[in-house]
Amino acid sequence: MKSKQKAKEKKKKGGKVKKFFLIVLLILLILAAVFAYKVHKNGGGISGMLAATLGHDQNTVNKLPKMYCLLVGKSQGLTDTIMLASYDPKTQEAGLLSIPRDTFVGESKSSAYPTDKINAVYSSYSSSQEGLEKLVKAVSSLTGIDVKYYVMVDTQALRALVDEIGGVTFNVPIDMNYDSNKQNLHIHLKAGEQKLDGDKAEQVVRFRHNNNGTTYPESYGMEDLGRMKTQRAFLTALAKQTLVPANVTKIPGFIDIAKEYVETNLDFDAIKDYVPYAVNFNTDNLKTDKVPGEPAYLNTWAFYLADEEETKKVVNKLFFGQEETSKEEEGNTVSSEETKESDTNKINIEVLNGSGKTTNLAEVVAELEAAGYNVEKTGKTTTTGKTTIINRKNVSETIQANIKEIVDTESITNGQSSGDTDITIILGTDYVV
Prior knowledge:
This protein has helices at about 1-15, 25-40, 45-55, 130-145, 155-165, 200-205, 225-240, 250-260, 270, 275-280, 310-320, 340-345, 360-370, 395-405, and strands at about 65-75, 80-90, 95-100, 150-155, 170, 175-180, 185-190, 190-195, 260-265, 285-290, 295-300, 300-305, 350-355, 375-380, 390, 410-415, 425. The chain is of the alpha/beta class.
């Protein structure tokens, strides 16, 4: 157990990085790095000197509003990746909300047509600028947030950036095999950690399902939901491996990529005051989520219907730190260390081993039972990269926190009810014994 604890501590210190928005931060840091490099050559500190260079004082940051920006990934004219990002320099907090590309944004469900999908808004206009402005309005309407800025990046920029930094090490979640001659897209990757060049990076972020129709496991998020999750994970890895001091000499190349493949209404005047604070951004302060809802068919066409009430809750929690608490929970918050056995012995748990190692399953079952949980079911599942907890019966946040600590993961989703099972745990290859 001591060796496991040491491994967990090491993993927490070095490998636990929150997902965060790459594009806006990268643009901010490219600008910051230009200043910082000059300051560094002159022997000065970075953040303070940047603030001084721009004429800031100690009160400047308190006057800066939170910035919202729409992030759009374009491939062959289609906006397949749509995310809303926020950054607050005062609190050093950031948020990233994924919006499913099939989200219905039309006026009438009874007359719904594919052009009513949010990813069709941009292509409905001949002018790229007008299309992006209309997409910004659609996202503002969906989220209730007044969005002013947008950044659209062609997938070729992703390829170019990955090749510019010499590749990105990434844990591909599942085996991926897909071919489309029409799109000139051929995806053939094995699950597991590997170094991806630009071509393979594009394969990862564009994958949705295999040639035989199989896709990501339900626990991960099937089809487009799984793709969005993988995109966020890859952007995390890309940003972490791009925004390092060793790449300061590659800034001219980054700028050339931005000029060729990025379209934005952000300009230097809009973001210069945020630069001194963005260089100190801590990824632990980032929160991510997706627009809640469910797939549905309207007039035989496949859509994603956002749940308005749940979307409001997610937006409030993600961007404003507001989280609704039931009356029953108020005044009864208990830390994971105070979880009572009388609570745990009422929880039925299913453990599915996707780590590829039978010893991992035995270890987790032993720890759960030692904590007082009922492990009612075990089994094997497709090899997956990330350990995930599925909350099937709305168990308390205290129990969730305790189980997350036992299996050492922050990945938890809500799933459909399944018999007497309260929690399903899927062990991934990231699990350390």
